[in-house]
Amino acid sequence: MGDAAMRSLREAMVDRQLVARGISDERVLAAMRAIPRHHFVPASRLSLAYSDRPVPIGSGQTISQPYIVAIMSSLLSELEEGSKVLEIGSGSGYQTAILVHMGLEVHAVEILSELAEASMARLEELQLAPASMRVANGQEGLPEHAPYDAIIAAACAKKMPVTWSQQIASRGIIVAPMGRWRGQRLVKWDEKDGAMHRSDICNVRFVPLVRG
Ligand code: SAH
After folding, report:
1. What is the mean pLDDT of the chain?
2. Residue 63 maps to a domain
3. Which residues constitute the domain of residue 160?
4. Nearest C-alpha to atom 7 of ligand 1 is from which residue?
5. What is the pLDDT of residues 38-68, one digit of tens each?
6. 145 domain-assigned
7. Which ligand 1 atom sits closest to the C-alpha of 57?
8. Residues lining ligand 1, judged by CB closer than 6 Å?
9. Distance between CA atoms of 173 and 154, rounded to whole angstroms?
10. Is the pTM of this model over 0.70?
């Protein structure tokens, strides 16, 4: 399939899976219209690149469903351009690319080196490289660039690692799946006056956050 065919699949993805379900943030929609999601799935799964589901990317991991990426990105849309974001579990790099396109300073952490290397090469080629990409355990956060205006995770912890609340800036936000394997909730926390305030967004199913 050529680029024009992929572009029309991408337009249909945005209209039917995102706009039709209430995603209205223009910064998010512009990013998801622009980023060629098919570059982030394996060649053998190309036909699934714009489908309404997560897609396996190798190493037992998946690229998240477009709608979930859109919801998580929309939750970060209150951030001004240039805000500093820690992304944990960058996997294919698709969510990374969306955040970079939104004008955010992204520091990505991925525990599997083969995924981090492949995604960094792809993001550089697309001129969407994050400010940094580290092979590390996201349970520890990433102290060297802290504090972050936002932390976003794509792997589920039973409860929020204490490092994340230590590395969040005043008035910062944390977006992450939380809970047990079945019964996960996508959660947003807002930091205010030294305390974290929790809002539950929706039910989700992510891979578990690997513990170090
Ligand atoms: N947003 C990514 C989602 C990838 S799936 C995408 O759309 O492609 C979740 C990722 O979290 C996997 O790549 C997995 O290797 C990674 N991961 C799991 N536990 C981790 C940990 N403790 N630290 C960093 N990354 C982790």
Report:
1. 96
2. yes
3. 53-203
4. 63
5. 999 999 999 999 999 999 999 989 999 999 9
6. yes
7. 8
8. 61-64, 88-92, 94-95, 109-112, 115, 137-139, 154-155, 207, 209-210
9. 15
10. yes
Q: In whole angstroms, what is the distance from residue 14 CA to residue 12 CA?
A: 5
Residue 181 covered by a domain: yes
What pLDDT score was predicted for residue 3? 87
Q: What is the CATH number of the domain that holds 65?
A: 3.40.50.150
On whether the CB atoms of residues 96 and 108 are closer than 8 A, the answer is yes
Whether residue 75 is contained in a domain is answered as: yes
- Are 185 and 201 within 8 A, CB to CB? yes
Which residue, among 191, 100, 116, has the nearest Cα to 146 in the 3D structure?
191
Residue 212: CB atoms within 10 Å? 9
- Scored b (16 or more CB within 10 A) or e, 149-173 reads bbbbbbbbbeebbebbbebbeeebb
Stretch 73-79: mean pLDDT: 97
Number of domains in the chain: 1
Residues taking part in catalysis = 64
